[in-house]
Amino acid sequence: MKLDIITPGKQIFSGEAEMVVLPGEAGEMGVLSGHAPVITTLQAGSLLSVYEGSNVTNRFFIYGGFAEVNQTNCSVLATEVDDLSKVTKTEIEERISKAEVKAKLADNEFDRKRAEETIELNKNLLEKLAA
């Protein structure tokens, strides 16, 4: 099946996959060629895994979005994505530090909550990177 992972800023991945495991809001969902059409929201802070046979070939950390699946394609439209093969522990730790400063300096509830969400998502990403 054809898999496309797209964010508002760029295309993250485009290629063939034997199976994709999506982090749907109701739980993980395995998608193979011939899958019934479905649209699902994606759980923020979860992994999307790409398989060839029984091997995981790519893993992506999803910050939220949705996926549209049909018999031959899986299109993921995500707010933000990190390719676990490209992101580093140092980079994630820097994001956490910057968000902690933003949370402390926030002058309104919205900005504080957004910074706290960034901290939690990136801590979750660190855990998944270490696994």
Structure in words:
The protein is of the alpha+beta class and 131 residues long. The chain folds into two domains: 2-83, F0F1 ATP synthase delta/epsilon subunit, N-terminal (ATP Synthase, domain 1, Sandwich); 89-130. Helices cover 30% and strands 44% of the residues. Strands 2-1-9-8-5 form a five-stranded mixed β-sheet, with no helix packed on it. A five-stranded antiparallel β-sheet has the order 4-3-6-7-10, with helices on one face. The longest helix is centred in the last third of the chain and has 22 residues, at 109-130. The chain is elongated, with a radius of gyration of 16 Å. The mean pLDDT is 94.
Estimate the global geometry from the Cα principal axes: elongated
Show unreliable segments.
none
Radius of gyration: 16 Å
Spatial strand sequence of the major β-sheet: 2-1-9-8-5
Strand content: 35-45%
Structural class assignment: alpha+beta
Largest sheet: 5 strands, mixed
Distance between the termini: 27 Å
Number of strands: 10
Averaging pLDDT over every residue, what do you get?
A: 94
- CATH architecture of the largest domain, please? Sandwich
The number of domains is: 2
Q: Write the element-wise H/E pattern from the N-terminal end onward.
A: EEEEEEEEEEHH
Task: Report the top-level CATH class of the largest domain.
Answer: Mainly Beta
- Can you count the helices? 2
CATH topology of the largest domain: ATP Synthase, domain 1
Name the CATH homologous superfamily of the largest domain. Answer: F0F1 ATP synthase delta/epsilon subunit, N-terminal
What portion of residues is helical? 25-40%
